[in-house]
Amino acid sequence: MLLLVLLLLTLAPGVASGGISCYDDSGKPVDWFIAYKLPRPRHSPEAEGMKYMYQDASTQGWVEGNALMNDTKSAVGRTLQQLYTNKRNGNTAYVLYNDAPPSAGFYTIAGHTKGVLLLDQAQGFWLLHSTPHYPPSPKERGYEWPHSGLRNGQSFLCVTFPYNQFKDIGEHLLYTHPRVYESQLEGPFAQDLPALVNVSAGRHVRRPPWNHSAHLTSLGGKTFVSFGKYNSFHDDLYSGWLAQALSSDLYVQFWPNSRGVLPSNCSGRYHVYNIEDVAFPPPGPSFSATEDHSKWCVGGDDTASWACVGDMNRNQEEEQRGGGVLCMQDPAVWKSFHVLVQNYSECDGGRGEKSKPFPEL
């Protein structure tokens, strides 16, 4: 009987023992996690620009990260360290994409997307993030945090998926048109995952529809929904599609220092509001959206409890670029993002914006 119980635990969804997985700060494999790299306070030591908040299914909200972003003992560092230790392993595959690759400038033709896929023939992880020039090529360097990533906030969502889900993830990436700067897809991976092969070669969708959504199931059985658009969609991801698709008002955090920022939009049944200020519950920090390069949005109430992390800003240029988000319905995650919204911009018919405090729960 004991041997049977141990076998069942070994095969249970989400255990991921010995497989490629997202990892928490303690080195334990987890089904998913979200990390929020905090902005570096002005005139503070560099280490202050590598602190982060963390959550997974066990934390029920934000907790302080146990390490720094440049440390392989951080959740993101532990997760990506698998890429560097398995770089010559023919039994693994990976795809690294970033519109601002390491040691390169910005690519405005491809999608505004950043992420990492690493998998074997059983499982793997998809890490969506917002950090330019990151992570380093495993062929050139080991894991490290870019100096350019110290100043501003950054977002990370890591999900552990079974192997079969990477077919749908590949389809998502055909719509978002990422700039792949390094990949390894050989043998059975190339045969099983043709969409990822095409994505790595720079290919993308060629005919409408120009947007695509899919339900993805994590290794632990949690449902996520991916939303991706190609540049021919010619609209804002959030107000042009996502809010109506989720049947929810959305409060969106993005990089507001770009040109042509779109105002909050109340033209549809469900409204989209630009976040102006973020505040973690005390003793956590507060900061302006102008210090935050992260990309996420949260629903306006707990009826549906939507929260999404992804790629895109709200500006005129990115109406003409690919990108997407990965969304989850989870009351604890929804609440953790909802309480961050300190101030947002109201809609006023295009005649400017007025800051208004976010209502309390």
Describe it for me?
There is one protein chain. The protein has 361 residues and is of the alpha+beta class. 17% of the residues lie in helices and 29% in strands. It is built from 7 helices and 20 strands. It has helices spanning 2-11, 75-85, 166-176, 188-192, 194-200, 237-246, 331-338, and strands at 22-23, 29-30, 32-37, 52-56, 63-64, 93-98, 114-119, 123-129, 154-162, 180-184, 211-217, 223-229, 250-253, 272-279, 286-288, 296-299, 306-310, 323-329, 341-345, 355-357. Strands 11, 12, 13, 14, 15, 16, 17, 18, 19 and 20 form a 10-stranded mixed sheet that branches. Strand 16 (296-299) and strand 17 (306-310) form a beta hairpin. Helix 3 packs parallel to helix 5 (194-200). The longest helix has 11 residues, at 75-85. It is globular. The model is unreliable at 1-16 and 349-354 (pLDDT under 50).
- Oligomerization category of the chains in this entry: single chain
**Number of alpha- plus pi-helical segments:** 7
Average residue pLDDT:
92
What coarse outline follows from CA principal-axis ratios? globular
